Amino acid sequence: MSGDPGFGVYVHWPFCAAKCPYCDFNSHVRHVAPDQARYAAAFAREIGTMAERAPRRTVTSIFLGGGTPSLMEPATVAAILDAVAAHWPVADGAEVTLEANPSSVEAERFRGYRAAGVNRVSLGVQALNDTDLRFLGRLHNVDEALRAIELARTIFPRLSFDLIYARPGQTPAAWGAELKRALGLAADHLSLYQLTIEEGTPFYALHKARKLIVPDDDAAADLYQATQEVCDAAGLPAYEISNHAVPGAESRHNLTYWRYGEYAGVGPGAHGRLLQADGRHATAAEKRPEAWLEKVEAWGDGLAVDEVLTREEEGDEMLLMGLRLAEGIDLARYRALSGRPLDPARLTDLAAHGMVEAMGGERVRATRAGFFVLDAVVADLAA
Ligand SMILES: C[S@@+](CC[C@H](N)C(=O)[O-])C[C@H]1O[C@@H](n2cnc3c(N)ncnc32)[C@H](O)[C@@H]1O
Ligand code: SF4
């Protein structure tokens, strides 16, 4: 992994065929299909505005996320990628990822995405048994997921897929077996997320009513441990808390976030971090798709938030992102960003408790025990 954070472009497609009961992402179900040509034009316009604000960058990655970007027509994806290339140089070999749901209709569009320039697909498989897929409210079954994986492998140079674990009643043995099967499907990158109960979702209400019981902290720690052991043995160690890759197959785009690099966010609800003359801007777009569309058509961007971060906020963000990585953070960069060093006494104390470790030179990282309680570790260091 080279240490250069790169410059990424994130594009958010905010629609899904159905809302999963655990999901609090900016995703919306519409009974009238959105006008894709109109959205494509708005994406292109907002890309142009972002390029005016951040000119002369070379794009190292593009990520089409969602929502369900695989509901986009290939022509919509092509128009977005063309707009990026019209405004910035795109590095040779830039990573271009599209998040796809593994239902068969979406798989039919894979060749079109590849022709448009997508070279990496991230499939939302979530589980490899039909009972759990139904529990998660997914529209696909295991057979469809396996077919989508197989097809994606033949079409895209790179493939990753997502699984959600720590489902109700899941044992480390059952999860370990499912994970081994997933690893056998020859992806060189897996995102393995622990099920989180997000406020405002149907799962939240069920959980509150004690109708949905998820593994407690100890059980979740055992599942996390099983995840690390199975993935390590298969040669896909965690390079980030929830992301595992064969060395060299890490997600370039997500590394830009975690290394606290620069990225433009495009589309409803998208976030960006842009370095401008007056400092690092944190941007966030209007979340409601129709309101975002109208804003972009009227003003050239759909931003609802655009603020310059203080040095302290930059330092906090860098910690929060960088300590997710197995490669840790560079203390000198932290000092340069925040204008102050990390408190050596706190570092020593956290190290004594086995939460962080020095890596030689000026690097520090969270240990695996620290990963498990990372929010508390970051809060302690940033205090
Ligand atoms: C926003 S989704 C987009 C991908 C695509 N729409 C899909 O669902 O397959 C990205 C990933 O976040 C994960 N995710 C979303 N909500 C989650 C939750 N509450 N707990 C754990 N993982 C979650 C899922 O694994 C999902 O694939
Ligand atoms: S998990 Fe994916 S498919 Fe399900 S609602 Fe969220 S974004 Fe949509």
Write a structural description.
The protein has helices at residues 36-53, 74-87, 104-107, 110-116, 130-135, 142-155, 172-183, 202-208, 217-233, 252-258, 289-299, 311-322, 331-338, 344-352, 368-372, 374-382, and strands at 7-13, 59-66, 90-100, 120-126, 158-165, 189-194, 238-240, 243-245, 262-266, 271-276, 279-285, 303-308, 329-330, 356-358, 363-366. With 383 residues, it is an alpha/beta fold. It binds S-adenosylmethionine and iron/sulfur cluster (SF4).
What is the strand arrangement across the widest sheet?
7-8-6-5-4-3-2-1-9
Distance between the termini: 30 Å
List segments where confidence is low: pLDDT < 50 over at least 5 consecutive residues. Answer: none
Tally of individual helices = 16
Radius of gyration: 21 Å
**Fraction of residues in H or I helices:** 40-55%
Number of strands: 15
Mean pLDDT: 96
Largest sheet: 9 strands, mixed
- Which range does the strand content fall in? 15-25%
Q: Which structural class do the helices and strands define?
A: alpha/beta
Multimerization state:
single chain
The backbone outline, from C-alpha atoms, is: globular
Bound molecules: S-adenosylmethionine, iron/sulfur cluster
Descriptive tags:
383 residues; three-stranded antiparallel beta sheet; 16 helices; single chain; 42% helix; binds S-adenosylmethionine; nine-stranded mixed beta sheet; globular; alpha/beta; binds iron/sulfur cluster
